Every structure is written in structure tokens, then in C-alpha cells.
Amino acid sequence: MKTISQELNQIYTKQMQVLDKVVSSLFSELQKRTPVDKGSLKGAWDKQETDSGWTISNNMTYASVIFDGRKFVYSPSFPNGRWEGSEKLPEGIDPIIARFNIILQNELKKVRV
């Protein structure tokens, strides 16, 4: 017969396996959906496991402009406005992350001892 501690450890292990799988899938999807001009942005994705979980990042200076989605902006330099972001990723990455958040929640609900 298992102790409560053993069961909790098994649940935790299974949850971490699910998390690892979903994070890897999200990382692949982000790489795949990143618009390519010269390939620098796509190649700048990084995935690291930390003590508190996973970190996925992209350190290109213009990444936030692309990943925030396409929008028309005004500035002193462009008083008539201009488009920022990529036509290839008009919604940005938020919908991708939201979809994987749902996938993660659904997969975690399936975890059983």
C-alpha cells in the first residue's frame, strides 16, 4: 500500500512530465510560427528549465514588436502613422500561448495515480 507522500510524488512526477511535453510543443510551435526575414528572430528562441519551471524567451531587440501583433501606430517620427508587426503573425503570439495554456490545463486534468 502506498503512503500519501508516495502518491503525491507520483502525481507531481506525472504533472512535470505533462508540463515538459506541453512546453516542448509550445516551443516548437513558437519557432514554427515565427516570421522569417533573415532567420535571426526564429533562431533566437531559447527554452530553459529553472527551479520554478520553464522559461521560453526570445532576446532579439525587435521581438516584442513582432510578437505583440500587427497594429497601426502613431509617433512623433511618424505623425501619419505606420504599421508595426508582421503580416505573417498579425495576432502576435498571445493566441498561441492561450491555446497551449488550455492544452496544459486539459492534460493536467487527466493526470491520475
What does this structure look like?
The protein has 113 residues and is α+β, with helices and mostly antiparallel strands. The chain has a domain at 4-59 and 93-109. 49% of the residues lie in helices and 21% in strands. It is built from 4 helices and 4 strands; from the N terminus they run ααββαββα. The chain has helices at residues 4-33, 40-43, 63-67, 94-109, and strands spanning 45-50, 53-58, 71-75, 78-84. Strands 1-2 form a two-stranded antiparallel sheet. A two-stranded antiparallel ribbon has the order 3-4. Strand 3 and strand 4 form a beta hairpin.
Features:
113 residues; alpha+beta; two-stranded antiparallel sheet
Instruction: Give the rounded overall mean pLDDT.
Output: 93
The ordered string of helix (H) and strand (E) elements is HHEEHEEH
Structural class: alpha+beta
Shape summary: elongated
User: Helical content, roughly?
Assistant: 40-55%
Distance between the termini: 13 Å
Total number of helices: 4
- What characterizes the major β-sheet? 2 strands, antiparallel
Count of extended strands: 4
Low-confidence stretches: none
Query: What fraction strand?
Result: 15-25%
User: Could you give the order of strands across the largest sheet?
Assistant: 1-2
What is Rg?
19 Å
Characterize this entry briefly.
The protein has 113 residues and is an alpha+beta fold. The protein is 49% helix and 21% strand.
